[in-house]
Design a protein that fits this description.
This protein is α/β, with parallel strands linked by helices. 24% of the residues lie in helices and 26% in strands. Helix 5 runs antiparallel to helix 7 and helix 6 crosses helix 7. It starts with 5 loop residues before the first strand and ends with a helix.
């Protein structure tokens, strides 16, 4: 009816009712085009139409198919409309804002190969059947789907978004796979009513308070998405440093059905996550680490043992007085988690690693748990903190073999020096046999006596005395007696050595076992 027509001024179809064919193919709207309350009782054809200025379909009703394939919208496009039939926007180009706020799509909605150069808003939109955002659908700004409803959509994407993809408050009613390459994905309070797989590239993901009752997988896609045997072009994301997927927050999530695969968890917030011990970590999931190198605090060197660290611990340590450089400061809204909150987080993640038979990986989280208990002044008593401090200093909570071996070597050296100085007698006591021969012969009874060890004097640090002290010390390490004569002081030194040194040896063995067992 209006095919190839040119509307040089405003085109006002505000309350029009199209009962017969509504053909606007190749039409050009040089002024604003308003179809605000129009009703299309037949198929609406806007293929290859060009809207030079704003296009408004705010309250329009499309009772049959509506096709905007290859249309170009150079001004704002507003489609707060009801699409009863198939809605086709394949290859459409939106030069400025595109708004589908509260739009209803009762049939399939197709946006394959569409290009949105300005912000695209689908807030509170309802997709009752499939929503097709694939075949190189590109959002060059933000894509907003807050509070949208996808009742039966089984596939969302692959698509590329140069800005933020916002799915906060959205509802997915059936099994769905999301394939998105975007700088940031926001899924705050998003709800999934069935199984879901979220495959991503480049994204920082905020899953705060998301709700899912069935298994949900968040995975990093190592290679660009493939469409029709060709890789999806990612030119809008060319400035990104890498294609890694970084989790920003899992606060308030019930992680009982959550699977994370090949994602970066170094900046992820876990405070308030429920059933964190049941989360499954597949592939290479990395965490943050301690500040590297040697630092100086109050005039003394400080060096942190390499281990996995949660983002909340970084934030807590960065708030402490006299903090060394290298701990990350919390961003606005990250919360104020302390040792009392961090200890259960580390404990839950330790159990998650143990359940997946990754004992070496669990060791770092056990270390973090013990560190938080040692620093917790509200839930840990003074006596318990003292024991934890000793456990940390002697062996790094049974996880640092080098520390335990260092203390063992120091204890052995002290024992040797004490034995050489005070424990070994001046000379080995000699045995004497005395007896009386009865007159006329007969049986002689001898009494064998031994003189008491004499305290050393003179030069005590000789090679011979070192060898004897070393022999006593080595036997003490394995809880054996060396059958060496000792002074009274030496006896007590040996007793202390036989108590302390086997414990240190055991801690070293325990640390090695915790690092290598599977």
């Amino acid at each position: 009816m209006f095919a190839s027509a040119t509307f040089s001024g405003p085109a006002m179809f505000g309350s029009a009712t199209f009962k017969s064919a509504a053909h606007f193919r190749w039409a050009t709207f040089e002024g604003p085009a308003w179809f605000g309350a129009a009703t299309f009782k037949v198929a609406a054809h806007f293929e290859a139409a060009t809207f030079e200025r704003d296009a408004g379909f705010q309250s329009a009703t499309f009772e049959h198919a509506a096709s905007f394939r290859s249309a170009t919208f150079k001004g704002d496009a507003r489609f707060q409309a009801a699409f009863t039939g198939l809605a086709i926007f394949d290859s459409a180009t939106f030069e400025r804002d595109a708004s589908y706020w509260s739009a209803t799509f009762k049939d399939d909605a197709r946006f394959a190969s569409a290009i949105f150069k300005g912000p695209a808003t689908f807030r509170s939109a309802t997709f009752e059947r499939d929503a097709w955002f694939e075949s190189a659908t590109i959002f060059k700004s933000d894509a907003r789907f807050e509070s949208a409803t996808f009742k039966t959509t089984y596939k969302f994407g692959p698509l590329v978004c140069a800005g933020r993809t916002r799915l906060s408050g959205a509802l997915f009613g059936g099994p769905v796979t999301l394939s998105i390459a975007t700088r940031r994905l926001e899924c705050r309070r998003t709800r999934w009513s069935s199984t879901a797989e979220v495959r991503l590239r480049y994204a920082a993901v905020d899953f705060s308070h998301a709700v899912f009752e069935y298994p949900l997988t968040i995975a990093a896609e190592p290679e660009p998405f493939v469409l029709d045997d060709a890789q999806l072009a990612e030119a809008p994301l060319a400035g990104a440093p890498d294609a890694a997927v970084r989790m920003a927050s899992l606060c308030g999530v019930d992680a009982a059905h959550l699977v994370l695969a090949d994602v970066d968890l170094s900046g992820c917030l876990f405070n308030g996550t429920v059933h964190l011990d049941q989360v499954r970590l597949e592939g290479t999931c990395s965490f943050d680490s301690v500040p590297p190198g040697t630092h100086w605090r109050a005039g003394r060197p400080v060096r942190f043992t390499e281990r996995c660290v949660l983002a909340e611990e970084h934030h807590w340590r960065a708030r402490q007085p006299g903090v060394v450089r290298g701990w990350n400061v919390a961003v606005c809204g990250a919360g104020q988690a302390g040792p009392a909150q961090l200890a259960p987080m580390y404990r839950a993640l330790r159990k998650a690693f143990e359940d997946s038979k990754n004992e070496p990986g669990a060791a770092d989280f056990y270390y973090g748990e013990m560190e938080m208990r040692r620093h917790d002044r509200t839930g840990t008593s003074r006596a318990e903190r003292g024991l934890l401090y000793a456990y940390w200093m002697l062996s790094g909570y049974g996880l640092r073999a080098s520390r335990a071996l260092g203390w063992l070597a120091a204890a052995m050296l002290v024992t040797i020096m004490l034995l050489m100085g005070f424990g070994l007698p001046k000379d080995d006591p000699k045995q004497e046999a005395t007896g009386t021969v009865p007159p006329g012969g007969g049986r002689v009874t001898f009494e064998i006596g031994r003189e008491d060890p004499r305290n050393p004097s003179g030069n005590r640090f000789t090679g011979e005395r070192f060898e004897k002290a070393l022999n006593v010390t080595l036997n003490s390490v394995v809880f054996r007696s060396a059958d060496q004569d000792l002074t009274t002081a030496g006896t007590y030194i040996e007793m202390a050595s036989r108590l302390a040194e086997p414990v240190l040896l055991g801690l070293a063995v325990l640390a090695v076992r915790n690092r290598v067992k599977r």
